[in-house]
């Protein structure tokens, strides 16, 4: 092996540079500048992706594509009908939620309904994928309730505009892609906690408005409420076995409404909950487009900015998690765009605020109803939901107001049941304890705090747990190679394991030549580079030579770049060969040839 300064391989030599800290030993014999790296060095990402693809790598891909295209063309009318009926079903399910969230935010029920119309249509048409339904949401309403209470509804609309603008900025910058960092246990905890929150919200409809206690089955009102909710749930399960023409949730709501009228049951309707004024109909209830009536000043911005930032974060997180959930439910071979979803939600919130709305985000429960009703095949399902709701408010408001709340509660309870990940309970003793703890943590925080806090805490807990687990994997074995002592390292070298790495060596007792073999190890960050430099310095202080073997090109370059001018010592030699691994530490440098 011939030791030469690493920088002499550069095209233009710089004579004014100080002597290199790290030297390179060329161990290869017959390689030339034009030789390409052996295939073993490079990962075939395309093949890896194909091997992970649920669609495989069939030889008949072209034939399959043609068949799929033909079937899609012939069934376009069916998909449009499915999307329309699903939108109609979801529009009914949106009403009690929008009304309830409007009460939470402290505004008129009509404001919550029109927020659902504007946000739902805009987000469905511009969002990340088909099947997602957006509306005024409980997560966002809870965040801004204090603002509305202290400053009034106008500040709430201004907050929605600002939050939407922040979401648009996040979409343009591509920040939505970071949702991929959310681990699966966090996702399970999110859906479990959300199912509990939605269930708690539905249970409020079974309480007496006078005493606040649960209605008794012994009373006519209690028996009617529990009975209609139960009948609706049974019909949702039974109707798919009888007909596929109408979505089960829509059919169940229609039949339960007819049954309530025929039996003249003492049950609250939507008109009773939202007020007769909300369902009077006519063009007079249409929202007006205007800027929020707030002072355009620095003080106003200081007031609404904290709420807007929280609302934007909560809305994006819930929407992107809903996107992932719908991706998993709709097996159409497509993946939703996180950037487009942020843009769609942002535009919807901006327009919602300009029409006097309160803003919101994608809803898991209603999106599940939409997908289960066949609405995951087209964006028209979410758009038609908004249109049907708008038509219902304007033209068919009195008829819409006759729908019993108990029937919609029955539909939502089934949604809660299907949203909860029951499989996570069976996995409790089969998965790592850390993952089980993260599921419980996120579920509890979703119920007690809010979604943003739950997801952030769960992700941090998972990340720290993973880092700790990986930090314990680094080890080494020693052998003799002539007069050289070889440390064969095994495991990742990064900030979590750098301290343990430096403790593996005994510079005073080791022979004059030591080899650090990184064949089964990877250098991952600056802490790892610093640890290598520290070990080299310890051996250098003892007048001994360290050989670094099987480092990547990027790692060699960064070591030389970071520490070349520390001193004039040449006690460290970096061995270089054509079989060295190819990976990046911080960034790849493709212009550096071996």
What are the SSEs and their pairings?
Blueprint: E1 2-5, E2 22-26, H1 45-52, H2 61-74, H3 76-105, H4 109-126, E3 134-135, H5 138-151, H6 153-172, H7 184-203, H8 220-242, H9 248-263, H10 270-274, H11 298-329, H12 338-354, E4 361-362, H13 364-372, H14 380-394, H15 397-400, H16 405-419, H17 423-426, H18 433-448, H19 451-471, E5 475-481, E6 484-493, H20 498-502, E7 513-523, H21 526-541, E8 545-549, H22 553-563, E9 572-576
Parallel strand pairs: 2-9, 6-7, 7-8, 8-9
Antiparallel strand pairs: 1-2, 3-4, 5-6
Helix pairs in contact: 3-4, 3-5, 3-9, 3-13, 3-14, 4-12, 4-14, 5-6, 5-11, 6-11, 6-12, 7-16, 7-18, 7-19, 8-9, 8-16, 11-12, 11-13, 13-16, 18-19
Structure description:
With 594 residues, the protein is an alpha/beta fold. 56% of the residues lie in helices and 9% in strands. It has helices spanning 45-52, 61-74, 76-105, 109-126, 138-151, 153-172, 184-203, 220-242, 248-263, 270-274, 298-329, 338-354, 364-372, 380-394, 397-400, 405-419, 423-426, 433-448, 451-471, 498-502, 526-541, 553-563; strands at 2-5, 22-26, 134-135, 361-362, 475-481, 484-493, 513-523, 545-549, 572-576. Strand 5 and strand 6 (484-493) form a beta hairpin. The radius of gyration is 31 Å and the shape is elongated.
Spatial strand sequence of the major β-sheet: 1-2-9-8-7-6-5
Q: Let me know the number of strands.
A: 9
Mean pLDDT: 81
The low-confidence runs, each spanning 5 or more residues with pLDDT under 50, are 1-20, 27-61
Helical residues, percent? 55-70%
